[in-house]
Design brief:
Layout (H helix, E strand, L loop, with lengths): L1 H7 E3 L53 H8 L3 E8 L22 E11 L3 E4 L1 H4 L4 E5 L5 E10 L4 E6 L21 E6 L7 E12 L9 E4 L11 E4 L4 E9 L6 E5 H14 L5 E2 L3 E4 L2 H7 L7 E5 L5 H5 L6 E5 L2 E2 L3 H10 L5 E8 L2 E8 L1 E2 L28 E5 L2 H6 L9 E6 L4 H4 L7 E5 L2 E2 L3 H9 L6 E8 L4 E8 L4
Antiparallel strand pairs: 1-12, 2-3, 2-5, 3-4, 4-7, 5-6, 6-7, 8-9, 8-11, 9-10, 10-13, 11-12, 12-13, 14-21, 15-16, 16-17, 17-18, 17-19, 19-20, 22-23, 23-24, 24-25, 24-26, 26-27
């Protein structure tokens, strides 16, 4: 079933999921991963806005998505992620002299929404997975470097932060548990590069399972969702975010999926404080005790979580649970299904001691076990605990991410440069640097920086070294391939 579901569901990027309490399926092959938890990050609680419900859902007066879009649009952002590529992957015979950019990066784009005026932003984990550089374009056109504060591949969520001099607009969060099938919703995002697109539909299904049977509880909607929408908000008719758009069907244009916002809110403290999410884990494979199974197995109850398998080296195995055991309660809380038990255990911290009421061969027993931490799949690298990731730029390339050389007679003749042209030729562009994101290429000639002429590498280095962190830079360049001159706007990383 899982393989079948994966064949008709596509993500706007690569999505990785953690193994669950119920062992279910594999994880797509991943790339480099890690999180940054900067020391300068504020420690105050996130001041997310939770809007109370003021108008009953389904009221005709409430369905005014023009007003909703006008209120929320400013809090929706575009998220761009770049990861370096290994030069050795491109054979030399495929390079076109110096103008060919052999160091082509992996690039991805998605959406996000601001949940705190201090610059905290939610998006999908698969949008920024493995990125060396993440930038956010605000609704007013400003482009800011983003820090990855925390990730949770299990439900495909990432928390970012940007630093802005003024408070940012915030999208109010609602209660996805109050959603009803048939309720009107809208999605705002950047599908296929069309920024701030608004689409409208209804909630088609609640609690849809796609990948991880133990945690998935997707909202299904027929509001149009396309590549680039990933990480954007799904909004109810009252203007509250009730989900994060995540996946689309590859076989139908009107089937999309969103992570419920209540599920996201529950993990925000861990994302903020720890950079990752630790969930309780019992290591038992479960199914729901349906009336048919009750009759076939002569179970004492028709509600509860039925044990199917118990790996030996797990908390459940060490506690003595067995196949056919029927778990009816945990810590005194009645359990109606396997999903209810999984949610309860996943919400507990690793190391917690829990007590289960178990029916075995018609006899009620009590089993205690100590939860461990839900393991990561082998394809997901654990978050960084060193406070940083690989250096973004090498010292030789400076804050622009450029390596240049002087123009000489041979270069001028080889590239047919105009007589008397002065400047420096770009011989390397860091694939995750600011210049690369501005589409500056190898083989171009830098003529001026901020309207100051460049005559040599020494001039270039002197001017660039004096640029302050976070500065906006205008690069005036000549392109030998086209014979055109152009101005590139580059934003240097903040300190």
């Amino acid at each position: 079933m899982k393989a079948l579901a994966a064949s008709w569901v596509a993500l706007a990027g690569v999505v990785s999921f953690l193994l669950g309490l119920v062992v279910a399926g594999g994880v797509p092959a991943g790339v480099r991963r890690g999180v940054v938890t900067p020391a300068a990050l504020e420690t105050r609680p996130l001041s997310i806005s939770m809007d109370p419900e003021r108008t009953p859902a389904g009221s005709a007066a409430a369905v005014d998505f023009a007003a909703v879009a006008a209120r929320i649009n400013g809090a929706v952002v575009n998220v761009d992620a770049v990861a370096r590529e290994d030069r050795s992957r491109a054979p030399r015979r495929f390079q076109r002299d110096m103008a060919d950019d052999n160091n082509a990066p992996r690039e991805g784009s998605g959406s996000g929404f601001i949940i705190d005026a201090a610059g905290f932003i939610l998006t999908n984990h698969h949008v920024i997975e493995g990125a060396d550089r993440v930038t956010v374009t605000l609704g007013d056109g400003r482009v800011l470097r983003a820090t990855v504060v925390g990730i949770d591949p299990a439900i495909d969520v990432a928390l970012l932060q940007v630093l802005a001099p003024d408070p940012l607009p915030v999208a109010p969060l609602g209660d996805s548990d109050a959603l009803r099938v048939g309720e009107w919703v809208c999605a705002i995002g950047n599908p296929l590069g069309y920024v701030h697109s608004v689409t409208v539909g209804v909630v088609s299904f609640l609690g849809r399972k796609l990948y991880d049977q133990s945690l998935d509880a997707y909202i299904q909607t027929d509001a149009a969702i396309s590549f680039g929408n990933s990480g954007g908000p799904l909004i109810n008719s009252r203007g509250q975010v009730v989900g994060m758009t995540t996946a689309v069907s590859s076989q139908a244009s009107n089937i999309g999926f969103a992570v419920p916002i209540s599920q996201v809110i529950g993990i925000l403290p861990q994302l903020r404080e720890r950079g990752r999410v630790a969930r309780g884990y019992a290591g038992v494979v479960l199914t729901t005790a349906t009336p048919r199974l009750q009759a076939a197995l002569q179970l004492a109850r028709n509600q509860g979580a039925l044990v199917q398998d118990v790996p030996a080296d797990t908390p459940a195995g060490r506690a003595g649970l067995r196949p056919y055991d029927l778990i009816t309660a945990i810590d005194g809380v009645p359990i109606a299904s396997d999903e209810a038990l999984i949610r309860y255990i996943a919400a507990r911290v690793p190391g917690a001691l829990v007590r289960m009421d178990v029916w075995r061969d018609g006899t009620k027993r009590s089993v205690s076990l100590k939860l461990t931490e839900r393991p990561l799949p082998a394809t997901v690298r654990p978050p960084s605990t060193t406070g940083g990731v690989r250096p973004v730029l090498s010292p030789e390339q400076g804050p622009l991410g450029l390596t240049v050389r002087d123009l000489d007679a041979a270069t001028t003749k080889r590239f047919t440069l105009p007589d008397g042209m002065t400047g420096v030729m770009i011989i390397d562009v860091d694939s995750a640097g600011p210049a690369r994101q501005a589409r500056v290429r190898r083989g171009q000639v830098v003529l001026e920086i901020n309207r100051t002429k460049i005559g040599s590498v020494a001039d270039f280095q002197r001017i660039v070294s004096a640029l302050p962190p976070g500065a906006a830079v205008a690069l005036f360049v000549f392109d030998p391939l086209t014979g055109d001159r152009g101005i590139y706007s580059i934003l240097i990383d903040p300190a």
